[in-house]
Amino acid sequence: MSISALSSAVSGIASATARFEASAARTARAPLDDLAGEAVERMAASTELKANVAVLRAADEMTGTLLDMLA
Q: What does the buried/exposed string (b/e) look like for 9-19 if buried means 16 or more CB atoms within 10 Å of the residue's CB?
């Protein structure tokens, strides 16, 4: 279970990072085309990143608790 959570979290982190970088690149190329839309995109990518980091931390804590129980 936690390996699946780790895999999903890592994949989500990579996806959020790619979305953020793509939005930043679009803004750098044409800053006035859709400034508000790109700001929203970066905020959404940031929220997605934070959520996936939280999943990663929770999976790590669950694994640690399981190992403590088995020790």
A: beebbeebeeb
Q: List pLDDT tens digits, range 3-49.
A: 788 889 999 999 999 999 999 999 999 988 999 999 999 999 999 99
CA R_g for the chain? 17
- Residue 30 is given by DSSP the state -
Q: Do 7 and 55 form a contact (C-beta atoms < 8 A)?
A: no
- List Cβ neighbours of 12 (8 Å cut-off, separation of 6 or more): 48, 49, 51, 52, 55
- Residues 41, 19 contacting (CB under 8 angstroms): yes
- Which two three-digit tokens encode residue 36? 């508000």
